[in-house]
Amino acid sequence: MRSSVETALSQRKPIAAALALVLASGLAVAKVPKEEADRMLPGGDLTPMGAERAGNAAGTIPEWTGGLPHKDVPVGDRHENLFADDEVLFTIDASNYQQYAEQLSEGAKAMFERYPETFRMHVYPTRRSASNPQKVYDWNYENALNAELTDDGKYGLLNVVGGNPFPIPQSGAEAVWNHTIRYRSDGEIYYANQAVVETDGGYVLNVQYRELSYAYGTVWYEPERNNILLRAIQRTEAPPRLAGQMTLSVATINPTVEPAMAWSYNPGQRRVRRAPEYAYDAPTADGLMTRDQSDGYGGALDRYNWTLHGKKEMYIGYNGYNFQVDQSEIREEDMILPGHLNQDLARYELHRVWVVEANVKPTERHIYAKRVFYIDEDSWTIAQADIYDGQGNLWRYQDGQIFNMYTIPLMTTTVQATYDLNSGRYSAEGLDNRYPPRDYTYFQPPSYWTPQRLRTMGVR
């Protein structure tokens, strides 16, 4: 075993005792035998993330050879598109999408039908660019041997040390956990701007400045090893009627055991208040999204039954660097079109994805009765999602552009769109090209993240 793995093992701290006692009411074994975990080591047939190392038989998906290596990107600069010279292999549109039906989500097919003149997918050579810090790979190995889910229907976590809890998943809940708490930096400052786009293409940009610090699975700082996942402060800077509003949120690893907490600051009243529960299907984006829909999926898993349907090859947004370039190269208004994002800027590639189906439990409620997630095998990032209403009708479709922030390196999405197939409106998250790019050098200790901080930041 690699020495860094041994180091991680020696430094491991247990989950807080109180949390462990609550979670220990019942266990569903998810850990795998050592010979299975060893498949992720050098020379094995799996990558350190649990993906298939080999390409496919057709040669259209190449072997994973490590992904993009670390390359310093100075704070204030944007990541260069290292695949800018790639040419389009072919284009899928309304005239030919049936030929590729097996490699398309139901949501994508619906978009071809609804926007036959404008919605298309330009398919490029597949670049398996996914990579992460070595420490994440080492944690994944340990997790494969030790991580477990509770069997109390709440899908709690046990014995997780960082990275992806279940790199060799055996259930749908395990695969979604891999996405939810995948490595996304130790801390960062960025703009999480969002536009709600009307049917005629009109929109108002909601400018959201964020400071964020992770507690779980930090690579450069010592992880806290408690139930805290991340802490974040968000300040609205536009439109003017909302400017100055702020929230402090604390997300937890197991929200059914210890719910997420939030406080809000109103600039008119200059007061900080504890925010009501803001989770599950609480509406966001002018009703186009739910709280647990941001980043593909986030939050508690307890309202759904989760089914893992295995893997399939699918065309997903990948290496979408066009959506994170500076305003001088591609303007925000060039990205947003009536009905959908500018598909001539999007890049699609053939990748293997895990297919996970979520159905609301008979005893629970959620406005989304069923969701089908397509999770990239190399990064555990949700690439697309089909979303159904209570009558079983396809209602909404999520489509994101995954890419590698190789200054760390880590995988995230540039822009993610949620399309309402009934109204023709959509939400676009991640429109930051008029604002400073992400700063991953940011980190603050737990003592920074208090309601008092909102008061000191408040400006009337």
Q: How would you characterize the overall build of this protein?
A:
The protein is an alpha+beta fold and 460 residues long. It has two domains: 3-66 and 133-172, no CATH class; 90-131 and 177-457, Lipoprotein localisation LolA/LolB/LppX (outer membrane lipoprotein receptor (LolB), chain A), CATH 2.50.20.10. The protein has eight helices and 21 strands. The protein has helices spanning 3-11, 17-23, 34-37, 106-114, 134-146, 172-180, 332-335, 451-457; strands at 27-28, 90-92, 121-123, 148-150, 157-158, 187-191, 194-197, 203-214, 228-238, 246-252, 261-266, 271-274, 283-284, 289-290, 304-318, 348-360, 370-376, 382-388, 394-405, 410-420, 426-429. The strands form four sheets. It has a five-stranded mixed barrel. It has a three-stranded antiparallel sheet with strand order 1-4-5, with no helix packed on it. A hairpin with a 4-residue loop joins strand 13 and strand 14 (289-290). The chain is globular.
Q: Could you state the order of secondary-structure elements as H and E? A: HHEHEHEHEEHEEEEEEEEEEHEEEEEEH
CATH top-level class of the largest domain: Mainly Beta
Beta strands, count: 21
Low-confidence stretches: 1-27
Morphology call: globular
Q: What's this entry about, in short?
A:
This protein is of the alpha+beta class and 460 residues long. It contains eight helices and 21 strands.
Per-chain topology:
Blueprint: H1 3-11, H2 17-23, E1 27-28, H3 34-37, E2 90-92, H4 106-114, E3 121-123, H5 134-146, E4 148-150, E5 157-158, H6 172-180, E6 187-191, E7 194-197, E8 203-214, E9 228-238, E10 246-252, E11 261-266, E12 271-274, E13 283-284, E14 289-290, E15 304-318, H7 332-335, E16 348-360, E17 370-376, E18 382-388, E19 394-405, E20 410-420, E21 426-429, H8 451-457
Helix pairs in contact: 1-5
